[in-house]
Specification:
mainly alpha; 2 domains; two-stranded antiparallel sheet; globular
């Protein structure tokens, strides 16, 4: 009896692995450029920071509307962009509730320009707008606004990078193969622990670090869930990427999927704990 042999990988798997490896330099370069721009926006001041994230939110909504297709895409993008601009102006002025109302109005008007996709059309404005209001609420909370944003960057970027490399290195059972075949439980665990550890380095005092690490575990897990959420939407509409704008990443929506979920969750917790004017303190002070 001949000894058992390992099954050879299928041509499709070999091609996919080769494509991922050849894509890595472009992915890394694009990621570094985007990180540098995001960090520069933090230090440039409130209004430049808001403009940076307003542009990102408009692009997310535009990609969302293109992804779901249907009639009235130009109208939906224009109405959504206007609602996001109004919400950004209100958020930077500290009027968070009015900003949320502006997003609700924009979502409703956007739905009027769609066919059977009306709920999906509304979702694009709310998805992009939630990120915009959340990140502005964090940044505008002084004296810890910039620190809270840097904490969020470190946590999400660390979780994303370490989940990618940790999962590829260790492998093992898939996290949700029907939605995202490449993600593993090992990558998920490594990502959230590393992300939380990096985030804990931005604690205002050493005494805050353990509690911030624990909170960071939850935020990092939410960021990974946000990645899966966007993958599920793309699979529902039968597309691989939201666009081809960013080499190695796809679209802005692809790049920000986990960040959007993490930012909204963190800002919501900060709002509950610190109040409208102290969202960053509610996130960092435990």
């Amino acid at each position: 009896m001949s000894p058992p042999t390992l099954a050879s990988p299928s041509p499709e798997n070999v091609a996919a692995t080769t494509a991922k490896r050849s894509d890595l330099p472009a992915r890394a370069a694009a990621g570094l450029v985007l990180m540098a721009l995001a960090l520069a926006a933090v230090w440039a001041g409130f209004y430049w920071f808001t403009l940076f994230w307003l542009i990102a939110a408009i692009m997310v909504n535009s990609e969302w509307q293109n992804l779901i297709g249907g009639e009235g895409r130009a109208y939906r993008m224009a109405v959504g962009g206007l609602a996001l601009a109004v919400a950004a102006f209100l958020a930077v002025d500290g009027r968070t509730m009015l900003a949320i109302l502006a997003l609700g109005a924009g979502a409703g008007l956007s739905a009027l320009g769609a066919d059977w996709r009306r709920p999906w059309a509304s979702g694009g404005v709310l998805y992009a707008g939630a990120m915009l209001v959340a990140i502005c609420a964090l940044r505008m909370s002084e004296p810890h606004g910039a620190r809270a944003v840097l904490w969020l960057f470190a946590l999400v970027w660390g979780a994303d990078i370490m989940a990618y490399f940790g999962g590829r290195r260790i492998g093992g059972p898939k996290l949700w193969p029907r939605i995202s075949p490449g993600k593993t439980w090992s990558g998920f665990a490594i990502g959230i622990v590393c992300g939380a550890a990096l985030g804990a380095g931005f604690a205002p005092t050493p005494a805050n670090a353990p509690a911030l690490f624990a909170f960071g575990l939850a935020v990092a897990a939410v960021s990974q869930a946000g990645d899966l959420f966007e993958s599920a939407i793309k699979r529902h509409f039968g597309v691989k990427d939201s666009s081809r704008l960013i080499p190695g990443h796809g679209g802005v929506m692809d790049r920000l999927d986990g960040f959007i979920a993490a930012a909204v969750f963190a800002a919501a917790v900060g709002l509950i704990r610190g109040g409208a004017g102290q969202v960053a303190e509610g996130v960092l002070q435990w």
